[in-house]
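Why GL25193? Reviewers of the renewal asked for a concrete example.
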Amino acid sequence: MRTLLLSKADEHYLEKCAREHRFSYGIIIGHQADLTKTFVVHLARNNEEDVDLEDLTEVGLTISSQALASQWLSASKMCPGSFDVIGIFVSSVDDQSAEIKTAKKIFSEVFDILLKNNNSLGIYTTDLAQSDYAFLSYSLANKQVVCKSYTYGNGGTFSNMEFKFVDRPFEWIQIECSYDLEDILPIVETVRRINIEDQLKNVILAFRKTILVSEVFLQNEFVEDTIDLQTYIKKSKSKEEELKAAAGNSATTSDSDVSDALRLMGSQGFVGGSEIIRASILLPVKCQLAKPTDIKVREFNGCLRMSGIISTRIYCSARNSIADVKRYLRDDVLRSLTTRIQVYCDGLTDPYVTNEATFISEPPRRVFFSLPSEGPSTSTAVAVQFSEYLFRGEAPTVVVAQAKQILDVELDPEAITMDAEGQPDDINFANVLASGDQEDDIRSTTSSMPNPELSRSLYMLGIAVALLVLMTSVALHYILTDK
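Here is what the prediction returned.
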């Protein structure tokens, strides 16, 4: 039987929701540590619709399935690959005995909405989507907590689920990776007007197939999937200590030799008592994945090139296996790519472009923010970070508003990490345009990025400088002529 582990801060949050709003509901964001333990990472109240006090007796009518589904989907895009929305919670000042009867209906309606939209339950993962979810009900009247496990399918079923409030804060191990995306996909459609959204969806499907067969290295070395993360860290630290001891006993070993050896074995990732592990993802050559009969020479009308760096940060428990870590890293890259493509497509004013045009677009970049900590903080504690996506010109206040609406947290704009992913240089776009055979036949279709005034100002500044040079030349010409 699975056990849901909550922190004392979660208990205080449930009590706060009941006291301040009398009735609240929202989502549970969690992490699967192993087959028996699930950590609750964050509880987020849904504040889209405040419940009318007169309707508290009609509990089933006070929960909006549409609001929950919207919050569920938005939060999934903000979670790192190791976290997921794992269920729903309800908090009230009164007894919640009626909640169990209506919860099954709420779950079913939420899942129907999500599946109807775009199969959101499985689009972000490299394996099958989870089928078991948690339902948590808290009553302020008697301080009672009810925890159930919900299984989707065949009308949905509930089963008993253990829960426990833990005094000590959860300890997380941070794994980072900068994935270099560089790929070209053919556009095989023969129609003149090509749908951009369809092409980008093909990108997601193609990338998902490729990353499934990728290999993940931790600290520049291959690690067996069967061991857990705690064992791996102990072995890595033991290797580092042995290497330092051997270097200290050898008179012929220089400091540079020691640092080079440590760099090669990847031990430099453990800094300041907290574990930050550097990872890298390597994709196989595409022709190696194809059978000889699958390799064909084909003609196509155009191609779609993707280029950039995806910054990845996931947080794992020491209980997680190395196989889990690798899967979470793949999921995070896929989730980040999918999310920024969806955000980009949502902002398009016209999803079509002619196949004669050079279509240049800049999707949003990923920014990170830490969840506020209510417990005692230590210098070695790893702060869990979620992410949001900003277009060029958008301010950090956009992230603040999104975090408040979706995760119910207050953020300081100055604490948001904005430089994890750099912005592309405008010169790269100019080089693409200049590489065409005939300038008149090349048209650049820009995305619906906000605040284009910056680019316009640069153009106007260039025109003004040119006019100034022209006027100066004319003036000098007349002066010299008069003399």
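The chain has a mean pLDDT of 80. This is the kind of structural detail the renewal will allow us to pursue systematically.
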